[in-house]
Design brief:
mainly alpha
């Protein structure tokens, strides 16, 4: 198996674990962790295609990953702020119990 296929297999496994965690967990914090795993799998794909692509000296993959990491950090900050606001309002982080949007 070539190195690109190995990286893509690891990325697919990481994305599957993140997707499974995001869809099956009841705690909103663990759902957020699953989403972060999926974003890390996408970053691994960017790096793998950049490294084993036709022009690895162009540094385009690195730039995509830096932007994706910045977006993931902002997403995590906003997600945690929303989780804290929901917890203060409803005293739970269970996503199954958060079915009503009251003002």
């Amino acid at each position: 198996m070539n190195p690109l296929a190995s990286c893509l297999m690891v990325s697919a496994l990481l994305f599957s674990v993140g997707l499974g965690g995001a869809l099956t967990r009841r705690s909103s914090i663990l759902v957020l962790v699953g989403i972060e795993l999926m974003l890390n799998a996408a970053n691994l794909n960017f790096i793998a295609f950049w490294r084993y692509g036709p022009h690895p000296e162009a540094l385009t993959g690195i730039l995509f990953v830096i932007f994706a990491i910045a977006i993931a950090a902002a997403e995590a900050a906003v997600g945690l702020a929303l989780i804290l606001a929901i917890y203060r309002h409803s005293k739970t982080t269970d996503v199954n119990r958060l079915d009503a949007m009251k003002g």
